[in-house]
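4.2 Preliminary Data

To establish feasibility before requesting continued support, the project team ran the inverse folding procedure on a target of 136 residues. The structure was first converted into the token representation described in Section 3, and no sequence information of any kind was made available to the design step. The complete token record follows.
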């Protein structure tokens, strides 16, 4: 009985992590993908020295990754996409950490690490501890 309770707790924790991470990346991705560069520069100073195409690419990647954390799991369709989305977002956070480190923006790296850990927790949990089975 304890193992069943443990799996239920992990499943709940994974859903919370998926929801929070998805919300964060969907909001950040929409902002980067849709807002004018002037508005983005006010909120994210690094945007001023970054090619617009890269900023838009990052935004679209974050948006799709955030959707990928939720949609396959909610609809139980190709649920391995949730794992791939989590791993993709983990990669984005590794690259973001390197980017911020190269610019001397070390205060931004803490949030990158937290998001990286959450993404890896989701990938691990949905692969090993509490997988969601596809309807197919």
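Position-by-position output of the design step:
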């Amino acid at each position: 009985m304890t193992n069943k309770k443990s799996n239920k707790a992990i499943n709940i924790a994974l859903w919370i992590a998926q929801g929070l991470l998805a919300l964060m990346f969907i909001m950040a991705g929409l902002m980067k993908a849709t807002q004018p560069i002037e508005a983005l520069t006010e909120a994210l100073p690094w945007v001023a020295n970054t090619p617009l195409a890269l900023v838009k690419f990052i935004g679209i990647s974050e948006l799709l990754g955030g959707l990928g954390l939720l949609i396959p799991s909610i609809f139980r369709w190709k649920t391995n996409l949730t794992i791939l989305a989590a791993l993709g977002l983990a990669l984005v956070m590794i690259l973001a950490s390197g980017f911020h480190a190269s610019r001397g923006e070390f205060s931004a790296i803490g949030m990158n690490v937290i998001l990286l850990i959450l993404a890896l927790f989701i990938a691990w949990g949905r692969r090993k501890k509490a997988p969601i089975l596809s309807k197919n």
